[in-house]
Amino acid sequence: MKDIVFNYYQVEVRTYALVYKHIKKHYYFLNTMMILCPVVILTCIIISWFNAGYKMWLIVSCITSLAMFSYSVFIFFKACKRVIRKRYKISIGKGSWRTEKFKELKSNKLADFLYSKDIKTRWKIEKLIELYKNDREKSKLPPLIAPSLFIAVLTPNLTQLLFYIYKDKELMQPFTVLLLFVGCTFLSLLLIAISTSLKRLKDSIVNEVYQNKNTIREGLIDQLEDLLLRMSNEKEIEHAKDNLKLKEDTEYNVLRRKEMN
Question: CA 46, CA 44: separation in Å to the nearest integer?
Answer without folding.
Answer: 5
